[in-house]
Amino acid sequence: MREVLDDLVAAIAAGHTVGLGTVVRTFRSAPRPAGAAMMVDADGSAVGSVSGGCVEGALYELATKVVQSGKPVLQRYGISDDAAFEVGLTCGGILDIFVEPVSTGIFPELPQVADDVGAGRPVAVVTVIEHPDPAWLGRHLVVRPEGFVGSLGSERANHAVCDDVQGLLAAGRNATLMYGPDGQRRGEGMRVFALSFAPQPRMLVFGAIDFAAAVAKQGSFLGYRVTVCDARAVFATAARFPQADEVVVEWPHRYLQAQIAAGQMDERTVICVLTHDPKFDVPLLELALRHEVAYVGAMGSRRTHHDRLERLREAGLTDAELARLSSPIGLDLGSRTPEETAVSIAAEIIALHWGGGGQRLSTMEKRIHHEPTADSDHEDAGYELKSS
C-alpha cells in the first residue's frame, strides 16, 4: 500500500470515499506480493497495481461497487480460461484481494499512519478480512512498537493481534493471521491481514568512486536508503552523489562500527565495498562479515580477492564467515561501465534475496517467480481453484 498511500490520504482529506484493493495473500506465480494495492478515487481515477494489469479492470469495477455499498469484499482472482483472459491471471497465479471503502470516518487513523511512514517510524496496519460477524469486516488496528490504536471489535482480539503483529513489524513482514472469532489463539473464524511499514532497508556503499555513484542510483531505485562513506573528504561530497540519502566522511570501519553500536543495522542491510584498498576494506569486511546483514559484496580483481581472503583469514575470520562474502562483486553480465556494473551488483542482491540463479529465463523450464530466501507470504495453493 506504500505506493498509493499519499494519494489515498489526499483523497480522504478532500472528503472522498475511496475504494481500496489490497493483495492479502498470494499463491503460485502471482505477479505482485502481499501488500500491493490499487485505489479507485471518487472522480474515477485509479492509482497503483495489484497484478501488473491482469485483473485491474475487474478490480476497478468491484472497488466502485464496494464504495457504493459500503461493504468490504474479499475476492479471489485465479487462473482464467481461454475465454476470460480479461478477468483471470494468465500467469497462472492466484491472488486474494481485500476490497474496502476508505474515508476519514471509516479509518481516521490513516493520516497519522502516513506521517509515520514518511518519517521512517515503524507502524503496521491490521485489517479484518474475514469474520462470521460482518460488522467486524474492514475494521483496523494500527500497531506500533509501543502499542496500538483503533479496534478490531474487542479488547481480547486487539491485544492478541497486537502482540503477534509487533513481532512481524520488527522483522518488516506482512502476513495473514488466523484467530478465533474473539481473538482466541486457537480456533478459526477471524482472519486479519497485517501490513508492516518498516523503515527503508539500508544500502551502505563504501568508497567514493565513480562506480559508487552508479550503485547509489541503483540502490535508491530499488527502495534502499543509501549512504555513501569514504575517509577522503575531497571525494565524499553530496554533489558527487546526488542519489545518496547521505554522504559521510569517516573511515569506513569506524562508521560501520558506530552504526552497529547504534542498532542501525538489520538483516535487510546490504553492504557494497568498492574501496579495493586493503587499509580500508579489510577492517571494514572483518566487521561486516561478522554481523547479520543481507549482503556483503566487495569490488576487485581475482588477484585482489585472493589477497583480501588471506588478510581476512589472518584477522581470524572463519571459512563460514568468508563464505558470506560476494567477491568479486556482482553477476557475470559482461558489464564494463560503472552503470552496467551497478546493474550487475543490483542483480546479485535481488537474486540472493529471492533465490534466483541469474540464468536467462528463456533457457529455463521452472517457475519464474522464486520463493524468497527469507520468510514469505507467498504460498502454493493445495487445492483446485474455480475460475473467478
From TrEMBL:
Tell me where the transmembrane regions lie.
none
Q: Where is this region: Disordered?
A: 367-388
Q: Which domain of life is it from?
A: Bacteria
What residues does the XdhC Rossmann domain cover?
203-349
Q: Domain XdhC- CoxI spans what residues? A: 12-78, 119-180
State what protein this is by name. XdhC/CoxI family protein
Q: Which organism was this protein described from? A: Arthrobacter methylotrophus
